[in-house]
Specification:
Blueprint: H1 6-19, E1 32-43, E2 50-52, E3 55-57, E4 61-65, E5 68-70, E6 77-79, E7 82-90, E8 94-107, E9 112-126, E10 129-133, E11 138-140, E12 143-144, E13 147-148, E14 155-159, E15 163-176, E16 182-195, E17 207-218, E18 283-284, E19 303-306, E20 312-314, E21 319-327, E22 331-338, E23 343-349, E24 351-352, E25 361-362, E26 367-370, E27 383-389, H2 405-415, H3 456-463, H4 470-478, H5 485-490
Antiparallel strand pairs: 1-2, 1-3, 1-17, 4-7, 5-6, 6-8, 7-8, 8-9, 9-10, 9-11, 9-12, 12-13, 14-15, 15-16, 16-17, 18-19, 19-27, 20-26, 21-22, 21-25, 22-23, 23-27, 24-26
Length: about 500
């Protein structure tokens, strides 16, 4: 919001410039102009942050660089060439121009990508009028969380559970001064990323602005007309003083807290949906909308599906995995987007499977992770927190989640998963780092991630690794599955 603070100051300064520059003989006053731009600015609460390509005018300035990275390892921002320029021209009329360009933008390791980002703001005056233009601002090749995105003025894109993105954010402020001379002040930010939760090493409240440009102009003011002396027979009446009109009150509207969406069950049409937790010892009840005073939103955005620690988690649909990693609330978590744009959130995982990679295409029933209680679920029984975000409600951001209970019941019935395969040779390792590397192979003996929860034979073949002992056998029994003959003989049984 800091970019808007300068509006009143800049306009007041321009008005003073115009008012104080009248020449002898009643000549028209000189118009005023200023411009500012920067390629990238990273704002971090309580920290210095970083910026590149910051310029202002007057006088005219140009800045350029071959690349930019923040922090030094580029884990948050990396770019190709960056440029920025600001220029002004004043006289009886005024022109202000600011522009910035960033090429090959990559944020958070590829979660947000753009081939070119341009910020462009222009202002000009003619006689006593002033106007502005942002038509040169654009974003090309924008991909957000693995999906192509369009960039329209003041567009908003939800960023999973950790923030939102505004495309071509713009605002203007107009004024009318002495003699009806107009002033214009406007800005545009091609991409403005806001973090509402910690992500990628940045805290909640951090902001990344890419492609910022700002222009201000003030039209010249005509001198007051010469007073005409009244004739001898004319008695001049005193002019009636009129009260100057009050400027419209400005207030910053606060976004109201969104209520819990109720009664919304949009049809999910991608097809082939399956229940997300494998195994017979699975239970859940409808807890959607329940009060949660210690988390963002203050209400439960999904259902908790309880299952033994390490139970396999299945892709509920054919789709694309994204936002694999850690946050303080969800712990180990990932998102899945199906072919129709519906999104599904998996949280509190004990471990990821090798299929849990950003941008990875998975099939319904493939193993993407394992049940746990990481994040704010520590101390609770192991479970999967599961959410459904229909494509039609994504404009609401994270609060576009709907009650998943009816979907889960339908998928559980259709799938009818009560397999009794020979469970051997897989168990998640003990996780000591609260944020294991996304897509790390966390299976101790054999990898079952390529197996399908829809094909019992596939799981049997994947789990039929010889030599399973102690912990694996205990896990099999905790899942309610019958250990194989090889497992029993290894444990000293008949």
């Amino acid at each position: 919001m800091g970019k808007r603070v300068a509006y009143t100051i800049v306009l007041a300064g321009l008005l003073l410039l115009a008012a104080g520059s009248s020449g002898a003989g009643g000549a028209r006053t000189t118009a005023g102009a200023s411009a500012q731009a920067y390629a990238i600015r990273v704002v971090v609460p309580g920290q210095a942050g970083a910026s590149v390509g910051t310029v202002s005018a007057p006088p005219d300035h140009i800045a350029s660089g071959s690349s930019f990275a923040y922090p030094a390892d580029g884990s948050v921002v990396t770019t190709g060439p960056v440029t920025a320029s600001a220029s002004t021209d004043t006289g009886s009329s005024a022109v202000a121009s600011a522009s910035s360009e960033v090429q090959s933008l990559i944020l958070f390791g590829g979660e947000i990508i753009a081939s070119t980002v341009n910020g462009d703001a222009r202002g000009s005056t003619k006689a006593r009028s002033a106007r502005g233009d942002f038509s040169g601002a654009a974003v090309a090749g924008l991909t957000v969380l693995g999906q192509a995105a369009s960039a329209g003025p003041n567009g908003r894109v939800a960023l999973a559970d950790w923030g939102y993105l505004i495309t071509l954010e713009q605002g203007t402020d107009r004024s009318s001064g002495a003699g009806g001379a107009q002033g214009f002040h406007g800005f545009v930010t091609a991409l403005d990323i806001h973090l509402t939760a910690p992500h990628g090493g940045l805290p909640a409240g951090a902001e990344i602005q890419v492609g910022y440009a700002e222009a201000s102009v003030q039209a010249s003011v005509a001198p007051p007309p010469k007073p005409v002396a009244p004739g001898p027979a004319t008695k001049r009446k005193p002019a009636k003083r009129s009260k100057a009109p009050e400027p419209p009150a400005r207030s910053r509207s606060q976004t109201p807290l969104l209520p819990v969406p109720s009664g919304l069950q949009p049809e999910l049409t991608a097809g082939g949906y399956v229940f997300p937790v494998y195994g017979p010892l699975v239970s859940f009840i409808d807890t959607y909308g329940a009060f949660r005073g210690d988390v963002a939103g203050n209400w439960h955005h999904g259902d908790d599906i309880f299952a033994p620690l390490g139970a396999p988690l299945l892709a509920c649909a054919d789709g694309t995995v994204f936002s694999v990693g850690w946050n303080d609330v969800g712990g180990n978590r990932l998102w899945l987007r199906d072919s129709q744009g519906n999104e599904f959130y998996y949280a509190h995982l004990s471990a990821f499977s090798p299929l849990a990679k950003n941008g990875r295409q998975v099939k319904a029933g493939e193993v993407v992770g394992f049940v746990g209680n990481t994040g704010d679920a520590q101390g609770t029984p192991p479970h999967l927190h599961f959410e459904v975000h229909p494509a039609s409600l994504l404009f609401m951001g994270y609060d576009g989640a709907v009650d998943p209970t009816s979907y889960l019941r339908a998928w559980q019935h259709l799938q009818d998963v009560r397999f009794l395969p020979n469970v051997e040779g897989w168990v998640p390792t003990v996780v000591t780092d609260p944020a294991p590397r996304p897509a790390a192979i966390l299976l101790q003996v054999s990898d079952i991630s390529e197996a399908s929860g829809l094909d019992p034979g596939s799981l049997q073949r994947a789990m039929a690794a010889p030599g399973a002992r102690g912990a694996e056998g205990q896990l099999a029994r905790s899942l309610g599955l019958r250990p194989s003959r090889a497992l029993a003989s290894d444990a000293g049984g008949p």
